[in-house]
Amino acid sequence: YYYKRNKGLPPGPVSFPFFGYSLILKDDTCHRTLERLQKKYGDVFSFTFAGTLYINMGSMKAVQEFHLTHAECFQRSNDFSIISYFFNSGVSVANGEPWKVMRKFALQQLREYGMTTVKDNMSEPLYDSIQETIGFLKAKKGESVEIVQHLTNKCNAILRSTMFGQSGITEEQVKEINEAYAHIVAFMSITNFFYNGFLTRFIFPLKPGYWTAMKNYKIIKRILENVVNEHKSMFNKDEHPKNFIDAYLKERNDRHCKGDPTAKYFTDKALIGTLIQFVSDGVLSVALFIAIFMKHVVDHQDHQDKIYAEIVDVVGRERAPTIEDKSKLPYITAYMHEILRTFESFSVVPGQQCIKETVIRGYRIPKGAITLVNMWMCHNDPEIYSEPEKFNPSRFMCEDKSKRPDLPINFGVGRRTCIGEGYTMSQIFLFLTTIIQNFKLTYPEGSEIGNYEFLLSGKLNICAIPRNEEN
């Protein structure tokens, strides 16, 4: 039976029955363990984890073969997992026609209430929040400041306006969601992402942090259900929607009126699942991403000086950078790509589930197998990135575009790329460039943080020295 089941699979290690590599893979060394296996078996190999077959994709070429060339063979897993539970029925976990319809709608709304306004209106919430940050840092006059909490507050304001409208949800409610989501993130360890399937329902309750995560998930769900119900009670189908929730309700109503069968996909459950992801990732994740980029420029003063010089040369000192400046600032853009490439958190992430048996590279990929996006190996592939161990933004600045290496895949590849990528990266770009235009960033005297330890505490202390006082 075992011979027949495993016949034709990609090569891989022999492991414990059922448990597989769940007894071997650890959160802090997972990427290194998989790196050793890849050196032995190649960039495509298989292993089991708690009864689930995983196919490691350890190169850009492998990821493209699986998720682009054979995209029709893969989709999000419908089995129970940490993602399907917390983002239940949301756009990120949907499949088939519901996913296509919901994703198209969500992208349209992000453009309408997010990126379109960022480009066209300098008075919109993102620009307002950035200028408030500049004022906040100027008031500190170069003294030490904990920047993550401030960024979180600013991202709160941006998201409140984009998703709910200023009166749609209170600042305290968003803060409560953020605090609750922090407990959920603590449970979202790398190896917990690997558990997939029916038995996971019985394994998770035995894991540390599970019940705390469940308690806080219910808090988030309760808040958002109340917010949605309030929007529904005040909804006017004849008014132009002013935020994401109203747009969702109007879209559902319009499709019902037209007899469009896709109206059934616009359920309250799907809306809540989508909002949980947008609110949670749109605040905490974005704030931490911005802080990571800020920490990096503090650690690498030479790069900070290059970024500042490029900003002064292209934008000047009199006006604030806008999103239109991004294409004129190649070094900063390359710098952002290189940080994503070298970022170590969540270095391996389960990808998609095979929905019909197929053959890739001569290997049998059975139905039910799950791909594993090994970003650590993809981003450190010497065939794509020369001297990958070195931090070198210029690798993305080759004038001959055909010779430029592939961009990092932190936000996914193909049809299932994160729909919030553009919104997230635009916020990072604008916060980073505007802050560096106005301040030289350093650590407080006698303080220095190694690696990304601040991610564990959610705190990062920096000094922002006004440019006219840095000498």
Explained architecture:
- It is a peripheral membrane protein.
- This is Cytochrome P450 2A9.
- Its cofactor is heme.
- It is a single chain.
- The protein is built from 17 helices and ten strands.
- It has about 475 residues and is α+β, with helices and mostly antiparallel strands.
- The chain has a single domain (about 30-465), classed as Cytochrome P450 (Cytochrome p450, Orthogonal Bundle).
- It has a five-stranded mixed β-sheet. Strands 4-10-9 form a three-stranded antiparallel β-sheet.
- Strand 6 (about 360) and strand 7 form a beta hairpin.
- Helix 6 (about 125-140) packs parallel to helix 16 and helix 8 runs antiparallel to helix 10 (about 210-235).
- The mean pLDDT is about 90.
